[in-house]
């Protein structure tokens, strides 16, 4: 009977080891999946950041062109009201030109 108890203890130990190995494997798989999802999300965010950066750059360039146009119109004698209608700039901005 002592041998049976010893064998049972070994079987229990092996079962625990197997259980924890399975838990470890599952955890590793979940971590791999999470890492993959994070990598994909990072890629998407990097793309979004680049698109926004390009959009802001284009808006800045457009704004510079509009301000330059407003300066030219003001220097040519056009009224502030007319410049505002043509450019959409505020009166305050046009007055500062």
Would you spell out the secondary-structure blueprint of this structure?
Blueprint: H1 2-75, H2 80-87, H3 91-96
Helix pairs in contact: 1-2
Structure notes:
By secondary structure, this protein is mostly helical. Helix content is 91%, strand content 0%. It is built from three helices and no strands. Helix 1 runs antiparallel to helix 2 (80-87). The longest helix has 74 residues, at 2-75. The termini are far apart. The relative contact order is 0.06.
Estimate the mean pLDDT confidence: 93
Topology order in helix (H) and strand (E) letters: HHH
Q: The biggest beta sheet, please?
A: none
Low-confidence stretches: none
Assign an overall shape: rod-shaped
Total DSSP E strands? 0
Question: Structural class, judged by helices and strands?
Answer: mainly alpha
Amount of helix: over 70%
Number of helices: 3
Estimated radius of gyration: 35 Å
How much strand content do the residues show?
Answer: under 5%
In whole angstroms, how far apart are the ends?
102 Å
């Amino acid at each position: 009977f002592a041998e049976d108890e010893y064998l049972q203890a070994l079987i229990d130990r092996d079962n625990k080891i197997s259980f924890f190995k399975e838990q470890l494997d599952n955890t590793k798989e979940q971590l791999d999946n999470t890492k993959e999802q994070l990598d994909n999300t990072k890629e998407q965010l990097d793309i979004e950041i680049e698109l926004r950066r390009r959009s802001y750059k284009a808006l800045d360039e457009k704004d510079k062109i509009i301000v330059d146009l407003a300066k030219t119109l003001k220097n040519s004698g056009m009224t502030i009201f007319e410049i505002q209608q043509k450019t959409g700039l505020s009166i305050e901005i046009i007055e500062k030109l």
